[in-house]
Amino acid sequence: EQSVHRLSLNAEQIPTGAHELEIRRLSGPDFETMLVSREFTTAAKVPTADGANPLKIERHFYRTNPLPPSTETHGGATGRQTEQTERIPLTEQDTIKAGDVIEVELKVTSREDMEYLMIQNPHAAGFEAFQLPDRFRNTVHHELRDDRVDLYLDTLAVGTYTFAYQLRAEHSGSFWNNPARVSSMYFEQISASSTISGITCR
């Protein structure tokens, strides 16, 4: 039978300086311990990983506008019509309307061959994922959650990869997009985050 015991400390309980944590069991069989450190900031801009990190992630938003469909021709014969969409980059100074559909693009760069990675993209309040693809390229699985999309990769070779899907603005207001993150599922120290960004919906 397994039991889990947790000891949580917040920053106010830990004075500045070096500390030593000792865990003892006075009797009974051997046991396993795990120490997890999570850091949060209220800063408007979150610093990205330093140059020693093999991973990098960037996030961009685009306004999508439908274009008149184009007609394919083959040997003088008229073929099927193809729908096209124009992508216009969004900045924090831009304003969108409730009901608008925007595209989020995650660009992940790896300087080493990697295995077992997870990409998490939190959604700003008031936005919902819209028309996710059946399968993202280079991924083995993806999950749509209430507040984010999670992508899972078994392998990632050296290079830059793009993952994109659409979001729909459901409510008016000014919102923050928390950083997107790419990380190793087994080595938490290998990770990278994008910057935080704001978006306004009228």
List segments where confidence is low: pLDDT < 50 over at least 5 consecutive residues: none
Mean pLDDT: 83
Gyration radius, to the nearest Å? 22 Å
Strand content: over 45%
Main β-sheet: number of strands, strand sense, barrel status? 5 strands, antiparallel
Order of helices and strands: EEEEEEEEEEEEE
The number of strands is: 13
Helix count from the secondary structure assignment: 0
* Widest beta sheet: strand line-up: 2-1-4-9-6
| Terminal CA distance | 54 Å
Computed structural class: mainly beta
Label the overall shape: elongated
Helix content: under 10%
How would you characterize this protein structure?
The protein has 202 residues and is mainly beta. The protein is built from no helices and 13 strands. The strands form three sheets. Strands 2-1-4-9-6 form a five-stranded antiparallel beta sheet, with no helix packed on it. Strands 7-8-5-11-12 form a five-stranded antiparallel beta sheet, with no helix packed on it. A hairpin with a 6-residue loop joins β11 and β12 (191-193). The mean pLDDT is 83.
List its salient traits.
mainly beta; five-stranded antiparallel beta sheet; 13 strands
Brief summary of the model shown:
The chain is an all-beta fold and 202 residues long. It has no helices and 13 strands. 0% of the residues lie in helices and 49% in strands.
